[in-house]
Structure formats: structure tokens, C-alpha cells
Amino acid sequence: MYLFDEEAAGREAADDVVSGLADAVRDCLAPLKVAQVFDLAVDHVLRGNGSEALERLRERPRGANVVAEPDGYHPRELTTAVADLHPGWTRRDADVARLAIYRTAPVDLLARFGQVLHAASARAAEHAERTWLLVLAHDVARVSNGTDAADGAHVRQRWTPELLVEVALAGGAGGAGAGSAVRATLSALLYADHPFPARDRRRMLESDAGVAFLARHTAVLAEVVSGLAFHVRSDVAARCARSPGAHAGLVAALAFDPDGGVRAQALATLSLLDASRQVEVLRPHLRTASPDRLPDALARLGDLDGGVEMIEEILTGGVADGEAGQLDPDRERSLRRVVFRARVLRAAQAAVPVPLVAPPQDAEVAEELRALRGLRPGGGQDERPWHAVGNRLSLLPDVRALRDARRAAGAADADRWTAELLVTRTTGWDRKIGAALTPADAERWWPLFAERLDLADEYLDGGDGRRHPDQQAVDTRTMILTILERFPVVPEPLVPRLTSFALGADRHRLAARRVLGDHPGARDAARVALSDGDVSTRVSAAEWLAELGEPGVVGPEPGWEFGAGVLPASVRNLPAATLWWLDRFREQALDRGVPADDVDRWLGLARPVLRTAPDGGGPVVGRFGTPLLLPPDVPTPATAYGPDRSDEYQLIVTLDLAAIARDATDLPLPPDGQLLLFANVQLEDELLPGGAVYVPAGTPVEEREVSPDYEPYEYDSPEALDEALRRTPDLRLVPGVSLPSCPLDAESSAAHPHAETLQEVWSEQSDEGGEWALGGHAYDFDGYGDPAWGSAFQWPGEPWSRPEDWVVLAQWVGVPMGILYWTINRQDLAARRFDRVVVQMYANP
């Protein structure tokens, strides 16, 4: 039992402590006076008399919530009523009283106090896992970490996991016996959810005493961890780094966890052990773990001395004590791939000539790398400087400079660690580097993978690099193909695999073909596939050979890879690089469990669109702002309020319709001429003053003075907005494709029961372009609805028009937290009735 200091000072001091504890308990439980439960609760805590108090508290009497959550929101009249019944009481004083209890009370009193707190908390009582020990530990951490007072420091010093075990035993937490008490203690310290965040409680595990406690009870820790959330399992894997040898078995099991982030953290902790120990603890799981959880650990084993030899032993029938016998086909295939990568691909480093490592040009980064060479990575604080430099990859002309610094620091995982930055670090747009990799960026990465073809082959597997469910996935196959395109020559050991991708039907065939170029072996394989493959392979081979100019070979119709009749005709003719996005969408929708027929019906809603590209490429199709050029007989667009008063519209953009290809959208646009789009960008209403004017080709025009009179959103004046528009580079647009993203009407929702999931998947298909778009579906904005659909109701007094007849003419993400739309009825567009254009802005400033 815990013996507090005052007990050694004699009976008189002990009497003072007991008296002080009684007063502290009364101060803590004073809010129960408003419901006449106070005396029962105090008597239970001080003397352990009966459980009636707990039963009454579970009925949630008035004042119980103040006891359970003293730092929560409580009506002033309630706290005033408590102070009237317990003169001088304040919530602050109640916390001071709690510190006194937690500092000096014996364990049996602490257990009963925790039971009272638990009974008073409705949220805790509703969940079996939220035990009284958890509620008590959480409150101890809350009150002791929330003060700089000496009592707070004394409480933090006293409350160790061992003390919590004693309290658990005294209160019977988890059942009888020391093992149950340890299990209950670890559960209480590790459990985390709202409203019980674990950060403060886990400080009890961060001291030397806490680390020793975990090392003594590693078997119980493994049992507890298996039932906790993925983020807790990851935290445990990180904590085990303080004594990795003691927890090697547990961490090895976590290296095959269902969550990728947990696996990554567990492997990071295991890296602190020597190679032979890692091989030893990982081996038993190779025969039992789910095949989809094998790649991370197998990749590690491929890098370890003795790892490949151990895998070869298993493949040749070697069975250690306690291991199962024969391997299933998928597992055997995975193991053989590791051996191939280690024995063949890693030995083929000279297959691609690489330049010398280019040093960083940034002096500060260069100095950081020099300093890091003396800092051996080991997790925790030692890893932070490496993490910081890893976030500055854009300043490295060659990422091998970072790899070399990590090698010099003694890390065995330098190549893999550097490569994994692609799927673990983000860009300034908060997107994973690998998900936004450009050909220019790939120049900084390709030499690393040319030296480690085995890593390139791993990423060709297509593992998405997801670290936890809330993070965006990385299509690593696309990522590494982008990097392979920068290789000066095709890496011969990868040619067979690249050829199989090139002869496939998914989007990766395009990049694989670019990597292979006119490689003779790959071309011969395509010729063979023309007659020897299945239907899909034969069509793909014909497409590829036609692209290469093979005599007598005719390529298939565009969009063949989606199947007959899936895509609208206007979409099938889009460039293959544009259809790439629909292929990725289909793949991810199927992965999310949407039936294939439902995905295909949704793809039938696809529409072509012209959009801005993130790199600013594409032909020029317009210019922004003034001058306003109109025919002499066309009035300046404005809202007229009478013969002498009107509000002129602001010119936003002038489009050159001749620069827009006829099939670039599915809109019946005029083939040439100028289209002027106007809008007074103000926040007064969703419906903006504005519209469009069409000037046919060859029509004489004159420059028109215009003076809009309104207060633009986010600009000092219309003139300031016009100046900003004129400074904007010319509008350039590239082909794109769009799917519905706005909330659907009831009829459409019934026809597409998986619409919400499909829209969520499509929202992730982004390359950060699309500020301007012509045609296509409307971008969703905060669920406001489809502006094209809503435009059908903008003409009071006119015959009602069908919402499905309305289309988005143009849209502009041109104001902070807002979007502008120009919409028009399709029949009016065909008739060139641009005076019927509706302008809307959805904004949430």
C-alpha cells in the first residue's frame, strides 16, 4: 500500500490529515447538496458505507454534472445555489480540494472517490469501457496538469501506474487479482475518446517508472492494446521505443496491424533492435498474418541482414517450432517477390546510369544536413531534426543528399526512409508529395530509385501509402511511373512488368508506355498480344501499336476501356490523359464498395469541360477585365431603373470562341466571335447583376467607357477589381471531364442510391486546377445546390422551364470562399439568346 509522508509524523499529524481529507471531500462533493445526495456520497467516500449513494448518483440528480465535470459549462444559478448551501464554495476551490485528496488520501478512499465521480458522469456510465478507474485517472491528470502549484507537482510525482494498480485493487477494478488490476490500469491510461483524451493520463507512462511498468507487464499490454483504437495502438508502438527489447514481441505483432499507420510506427520502433532480433520476431507472423498486411514487414526484411535468407528458408520448406506448414499461393507469391527484389533488382543498380549526387544549393539546408550526419536517428526527439529537413525537400535538387546524410548518421533504412517521404509528407496544398508529383519534381527523385530498383518495384504494387483513415491516399503506381519516365534509359529488369501494365486496360497503361517508349522487347510483346492475348489485351495492344505507328494496325475507338455504352459520346473522344481521371474514379469507387453497375451508370453522367490547369497551360481562350469592346448599336449592359438611371455591369472576361474547339464541351456554342461575361460581384444576394453579350465575328466594335457603381466583395471599388483582373494572365484552358458534385434532387437520388459516396470519391480527384471552367457540371459549394437547376426558377412571369434544360455556361472560383456561375437554358444558348444568362454567386465569407 502507498504510505504518504504524514503518516510517519505520528498520530497527531495523521489526525490532521484525516480531518483535512474530510473537508476536501466535502468541498469536492458540495454540488450534491442541491439534490440531498451530499451526505450519502460523503459517507460513502470517507467510510465506505453502502452503495446507495452510487445508485442515487446514477439517476443524475441535480448537481451531479458539476461533480463529474467541474470544468464544464454549468448555469450560473446552479453554481450560485451550491455556494449558498456550502458557503464560500467555488469551482476553483473544489479543484484545490481535489489536489489535496489526490496528494494524501489512502488508496481505498481514492477508489471510492473515483466510483462517485463515475456514477455522477452520465457519459461514463453509458459506456462499459469508461470505468471508474479511467474517470479517476482522467480527473487526476486534468487537475494536476492544469496547475503550477506545488500540490500539482506532488500529485504528479505520487501518481504512477503502480499507485493506480493499488487503487484498482482496493476498488476491485477489473475483478480480483493483481493481473486484473494491471489490465484495468493499462486500459485506464491508454483509453482515448471524447470526452476522455489521453494525453495527460499518458504522462504517467512517460516517466522512468512508467517505462519500467510497461516493460514488466508487456504481456498484459499486448492483451489490452488489441481492443483499442488504431491511434492508441500506434501510440503504444511509439512508447515501446523506450524499451524495444522488452516489447519486441508486441511490436512485431503490431507490424502486421490492420492499420497502415500502426504498421509503420511498429516497424519504426523495431528498427531500434539489431537485424537478427527483428528477423526473429517478425518470422512467426509471415505464415499467419493476412496477406494484405505483409508488404510493409516484407519490405523491411528485404533490407535486413539475414532477412532474405530467412524468407528463402521458409520458401524451401523450412518450418521453425510452432509454425504452420505449407504456404498459401498469395503468401508464397509475396515472399518470392521479396527474394526477386533483393537478389535480382537490387543487384541491378548499374542498369541505369546515374549522375553524382547534386549537393543542396540552399546554404541553410546544406548546413542542416552536415549537422544531421552526427545525429543517429532513433525515434522520439532524435527524429525531429530529420523530420524538419524532410519537410524542405523542395530545396533539394537531389533527394539523395538527404539519404546520404542519414546513411552517414548510421541509419540502416536511409534509402527506404527517404523514398517514403513521398507518401508520408505533404506539399503546401496539404496534399501528399507523391499524389502531386510533377515531372519537374520527379527529376529530383529518379536517381534514388535508379539506385534502388527494388523500391521502384515495390511502389509499382500500387500500395496507396495511406497512413490512417483520415489521410488522403497516394496512387503509388502513378507516382513511380512518373519518376520512371525521367530515367535516361528503361531499366531492363522492370521491362516485363512495365509491359504488362502497358498492355492493360486501366489508366496506368499510358504512363507505362511512355516509360517504355519504343523498347523493342516491349513492342514485340505487344505484337504477340495482338493475337495471343484475351480480348482486353488485344485491344490494348492494338491501341499501343497504333500509337507507335505500326503498319496495318488500327487502334480502337476512344474510351474503349470503360466498355461499350458507358461513357457519353461527347466524353469518349476526350484525350486519354483526361479519361485517366475517370478510370481512377472508377477504381476508387469500386474499392469503396459501390457496385460496378452503379458506377457505370454514374459515369454515364460525365460531361466534357474546359478548365484551367494547375500549371497554367493550354491555349489562350480569353482575357480579363477592360477594355470593353461592343458594337456601336449595342447598349452597355446594365440594369435599367428608368430612362435616366441604370446600374452598369462589370466586365469580367472576354472569351474568344474561335479558340474553343467544337467538341471541347457539349454546349452549342457559336463557332467564333466574342462572348463577354459580366457580373457585379457583391454579397447582397445570390442572384447578381450581370449577364453575357455575344459579338459575332467580323462585327465592328468600339471601346466603351463603363463605370459600375457598387461595392465589390473583397475589393475597394469596381476599378480596383478591374485592375486586378487586367493584371491576371490571359485565360488558358485545357480539356477536362466532370461529374455531378452538387446535391441531387429526389428523383436523381432514387436513381443513384450510392450518389453520396460517388460524389465523395470524385471530390478527391483533384490536381488543384479548375479556377475557371466552361461547360460541365457545376462545382458544389457548401451544399447550396445546383445553380443550373435553380436557374429555372429565376424568371417570374415567364412560362416555367424544365430545370434539366439549364446548363452551366461558365464558372469562376474568383472570390474568397465563393464561386460565380453563369447559367443559361440550352435552347436559348442554341438560339444565341445570351440576354437570358443568369449570374449567381454562392459564398460563405
Automatic annotation (TrEMBL):
InterPro entries: DUF1963 (IPR015315). It holds the Pfam family DUF1963. This is DUF1963 domain-containing protein. The lineage of its organism: Bacteria, Bacillati, Actinomycetota, Actinomycetes, Micrococcales.
